[in-house]
Design brief:
Number of strands: 18
CATH class: Mainly Beta
Largest sheet: 18 strands, antiparallel
Number of domains: 1
Helix content: under 10%
CATH architecture: Beta Barrel
Distance between the termini: 25 Å
Structural class: mainly beta
Radius of gyration: 19 Å
Oligomer: single chain
Length: 270
């Protein structure tokens, strides 16, 4: 996805800090239910983005200073479009077919992020008996064919293996903190970050570490994560580190479920 979602919500003043070598679990306070409404990545901290939700609290539109993405549902079909404001044109369209659980089965994506090199990609999705995505195939008219496999342990994502034209070229392994998240965070390693749970559900705990290896099995990097969480268990900031160096900070925002239908809230840049 070419841009991130961002909305404003009030963060509880009392918070806990969960570091890579220390974490605390607190019982959520009754009546404080919230829905994830957006985030901002330190790499794009200057972008103000807002999210529009419908009455069912599904994402129907994401808008930043640069782009607009829309999600349109009709029966077992979902259509996702991206519009580039600067170029004043649509640069991406995905038409997908869903099963009775509203999970994607297949889809066709047409893209022209570079107008001179349009591409069409054919997607197929496979799930296990617990409803977790275990395989996605992406066949491109222009570039490589990708196969992405997902492995789980107790419904927790443990490994992602990516193949290009039949050759394994990247493996990511995940370890987690013991804390439960009060609200699932975007899944960075699934189709369009699994917005609207389009590729199924899997249990989530805060990721503690990701180990990435290349095609020869040689370790490429290790990412460790620290979290800042409010008293109800909602993560509002995630800090990634390579060694002692901060590699990125993502700040998350939430909206009360009591007021989250048909909302479109902009983010203050300050």
């Amino acid at each position: 996805m070419r841009f991130c979602i961002l909305l404003v919500a009030i963060i509880a003043t009392a918070c806990i800090y969960m570091a890579c070598n220390k974490h605390t679990s607190q019982r959520p306070v009754a009546g404080q239910n919230k829905i994830l409404s957006g985030w901002v990545d330190s790499a794009n901290a200057g972008l103000a983005t807002h999210l529009t939700l419908n009455e069912a609290q599904h994402v129907t539109k994401e808008e930043s200073d640069n782009d607009i993405a829309s999600y349109q549902f009709s029966g077992d079909i979902v259509i996702i479009r991206e519009f580039n404001k600067e170029e004043n044109r649509y640069v991406y369209e995905f038409v997908g077919k869903m099963d009775s659980n509203k999970r994607l089965l297949s889809g066709i994506a047409t893209s022209s992020y570079i107008s001179s090199t349009p591409d069409t990609v054919y997607h197929d999705f496979v799930y296990n008996g617990e409803g977790c995505l275990v395989k996605e195939t992406r066949i491109s008219d222009v570039t490589d064919t990708f196969l992405i496999k997902y492995e789980y342990e107790d419904k927790m994502l443990k490994k992602v293996l990516t193949y290009s034209n039949g050759t394994l070229f990247n493996t990511k392994e995940f370890t987690y903190y013991d804390n439960d998240l009060s609200c699932d965070l975007p899944d960075e390693f699934k189709f369009r970050k699994n917005i609207n749970n389009l590729v199924g559900l899997s249990d989530q705990k805060p990721v503690k570490k990701i180990v990435s290896a290349g095609r020869n099995g040689k370790q490429r990097y290790i990412l460790n994560y620290e979290y800042k969480m409010d008293r109800n268990g909602y993560a509002f900031q995630v800090i990634g580190r390579k060694g002692k160096k901060v590699s990125g900070v993502t700040t998350y925002y939430y909206n009360s479920t009591l007021n989250s239908s048909n909302v479109s809230v902009a983010v203050n840049r300050n």
